[in-house]
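G., the chain you wanted modeled:
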Amino acid sequence: MTKPFIEAFFDEPTNTVSYLVGDPETRVAAVIDPVLDFDLASGVADTASAERIVAFARDHDWRIEMVLETHAHADHLSAAPFIKAHTGAWIGIGVHIRDVQKIFRPMFAMDDLKTDGTDFDRLFEDGDHFAIGTLEVEVLHVPGHTPADVAYLIGDAAFVGDTLFMPDYGTARADFPGGDARRLYRSIRRLLSLPAATRLFLCHDYKAPGRDDYRWQTTVGNQRRSSVHVHDGVSEDDFVAMRVQRDAGLSVPKLLLPAIQVNIRAGAFQPAEANGVSYLRIPVTWKKASAAPPEARTR
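Predicted structure as tokens:
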């Protein structure tokens, strides 16, 4: 079995890991979960992180043919359109992105948003197979963090998105709209039923207490032995109780509002207005209904 070539690119502002995964025989490669740099305070977007990936591929003779998203991220914006524009790559995601689009379309009053997933080039069903050159890829639907999460199993490596973190840090939150801690537990147990030596490549790391370095690679065996949330012996009910309690104390991701709007469109922004500027929406809710302006109360 040919082992995939894997190069990780860590973006510290969002604690996100993107990957270039290549077939050494054909030099065909995929990019998984690329990051678009976005400064929320100024509204300035930049492609520096994605440029690093494209430049690395060019300098090392890798031909990027696809961009694979594990889900519609809530903590960073996707650079998939930039990579597609510069390489001709197609963009793929799990078919249940349709569910996520249906959830968020009314929340952002995105009346023009299609909810059939066709903003993406390919939609994957659970169990689908495709190839990166001669490397076979199997798609695993692993919902719970969101309804649409997928993992990509490529040889002895699985790219699991936000479903799992390093064993000393734990697991993904499940309190976003459409998330479900019980489904997350079952998805994680599915991943942990893979052979113990299977390498797991994660989408984030936040440095667990007492650890000074960032890490994003572990194994199924390590997770089963030592995960602080889902080691062998943790029951489904215990996990759900822990996850619900933990999620209740988590803050909203800083880039949640822009990230969701962009990522459910495959990384595309709304078309620019006449002044050449694209805009994002911020839904406003009032903590006290009585404090809302009269016009807001009557809508």
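Helices lie at 48-59, 80-87, 97-107, 181-191, 220-226, 236-248, 256-263, 294-297.

Shout if anything looks off.
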